[in-house]
Amino acid sequence: MDDDSANPLRRMSSRTRKVAPKMAAALGSTDNRNQAALARLEALENDNAGIETVEINDDDEASLDDDDQVYMQKKLAKGTKRKTRQAKALENARKAPRTFLELLHEANLEALPPHVPSYLRAAVGPPSSTSRRHFCSVCGFTANYTCVTCGMRFCSCRCQNIHNDTRCLKFVA
Amino acid sequence: MSNVVVLDNGGGLIKAGHGGERDPTVVVPNCLYRPLSSKKFLHPSPLSSITSEDLTSAAVRRPIDRGYLINPDLERDIWSHLFSSLLHVNPSTSSLLLTEPLFSLPSIQRSTDELVFEDFGFNSLFVADSPSLVHLYEASHRPDGLVSKAQCSLVVDCGFSFTHAAPVFQNFTLNYAVKRIDLGGKALTNYLKELVSYRAVNVMDETFIMDDVKEKLCFVSLDPERDLQMARKPGRQNLLRCTYVLPDGVSDTKGFVKDSEAAQRYLALTDGVSRRPVEARKEMDQTEAAEKSEDRRRIDLTKTEFDLTNERFLVPEMIFQPADLGMNEAGLAECIVRAVNSCHPYLHPVLYESIILTGGSTLFPRFAKRLEKDLRPLVPDDYHVKITTQEDPILGVWRGGSLLASSPDFESICVTKAEYEELGSARSRKRFFH
């Protein structure tokens, strides 16, 4: 949505700036910004904050049944073969609940003929007008300025300073 | 054979009860939670009961992701608790009416069928989609309304995981015309969480509390530009500012709105008329006094409360303009127009006149008003726009299901266990015409 950086008519300063190579790489591509934006949208669907941890190892422990003890004893008694770590990992990967996106990918809906309604075709699609309101990422009011480093919005000097101090993604990579 | 269990398996809340009754017996969150004090995941208690559960910083596991059932094992846990200790039904002697989101994937349908027939052993199953149930309920509720006369309506279901605009005709959802926005109550709560965590207190772990904040304080703005201006004002002149007190874990385990009267003050904004100056000045005097004491109080209580101003309406605003969030999706009004335009032109005027709002996220105050304001310019002049809000948007789908379950020919439209065993999931599902 932010196509400012792609605009060829935009005047750039001729002053050469010294930037760290990693920073230059991050600045060079708009990809990173898009990725960051997408990651942020993904995060809106998370159940818990931070990284989703699938607790497979604790599953036995966290199961609701109260017969954990019995179960553990049985397991020990039966334990003729001890699973290798690799086998365990494989089994866990098989047992682990898969995300909806994985299932969606597996269903291969793109292969359906175009007249069949499906999950993908029901998406509403892009808005008709490309205008977008921008809100300050710090205080929420209308933001007229864009951070040159990371592309987030701010509305005033004060908010810019706060943004730079706290949230600015200096290396978006 | 009269025992039909009606189960509206939503991403946020399970609504479950017996067919034929007016209201579901239990409404319970569709998740397991683990409070800080515990190592195990626990079943949340039903919403109606008054409990002292400590939900602060609870981790959550949900069987449903983006509206679809992805974790059948977890769902089995939740359902078996539901059937045995909340509903007290015996699955092997009952039928099940289950709601499923539109466009469910074949693999998900298969695992749902396995869950119903193999794990629980229900006698028979009927899978319904929510728009048709809502239509059914509204049509029978108002026998001489347009919905029942034309047998046609546009159901806007703005729920926990996503928002659908679905035209329904003769009790069948026209699935080729359904449009979806990937925004629902969950995303809104998470967005609010993110905003508050950045601006005031870190609440990234407080899913349940922020749900409560959203339900109590958020509203839909009729004019966001003007409201943004209002939200800038300092002190008590600011009609939008209100304070939410987080639970401290000692005296109370639930958060609350500090001054609930103040939270309603935004309602005065609709009229657009400024109040008389005398009144305003008097209030100003009070304001200053109140502000001083308030400021002093704020210093020692910073950790336990936070203010909301523009967040209150910018969060629900995202449903109307997801582009503001950076999503490449059209807003709700445009979504409705696209859904209608995919139908036969003869249906257009009727659909615009019979829009039904359902789903928990439509409970934001003034949702319908704003939608009408957005929609009117997009609809041809000679069509009427009429938006109906269900009397209880959360239970609307369940009530439709209850009606369907009590209809005499319900048994004949179900898939029985024997049929499932004979035909398998995919072929027995053909009966539902989804």
TrEMBL record, chain A:
Q: Pfam families from the xrefs? A: zf-HIT
Q: Which residues cross the membrane?
A: none
Q: Which organism is it from?
A: Rubroshorea leprosula
Q: What positions does the domain HIT-type occupy?
A: 136-168
Q: Which GO terms describe its biological process?
A: chromatin remodeling
Task: Using the record for this protein, list the coiled-coil segments as residue ranges, or answer none.
Answer: 27-54
- Region (Disordered) location: 1-24
Q: Which GO terms describe its cellular component?
A: nucleus
From the Swiss-Prot or TrEMBL record, give the protein name.
Answer: HIT-type domain-containing protein
The molecular function GO annotations come to:
zinc ion binding
Record keywords, A-Z: Coiled coil, Metal-binding, Zinc, Zinc-finger
From TrEMBL, chain B:
Task: Give one GO biological process term.
Answer: actin filament-based process
Its predominant location is: nucleus
PANTHER family to which the protein is assigned, alphabetical: ACTIN (PTHR11937)
One GO location term (cellular component)? nucleus
Q: Does the keyword Phosphoprotein apply?
A: no
Q: Which domain of life is it from?
A: Eukaryota
SMART domains from the UniProt entry = ACTIN (SM00268)
**Which InterPro entries does the annotation name?**
Actin, ATPase_NBD
Query: What is the protein's name according to its record?
Result: Actin-related protein 6
Q: Which UniProt keywords apply?
A: Nucleus
Entry's localization field: Nucleus
Is Aminoacyl-tRNA synthetase given among the entry's keywords? no
Which family does the record claim for this protein? Belongs to the actin family. ARP6 subfamily.
What is the organism of origin for this protein?
A: Rubroshorea leprosula
Q: Entry's SUPFAM superfamilies?
A: Actin-like ATPase domain
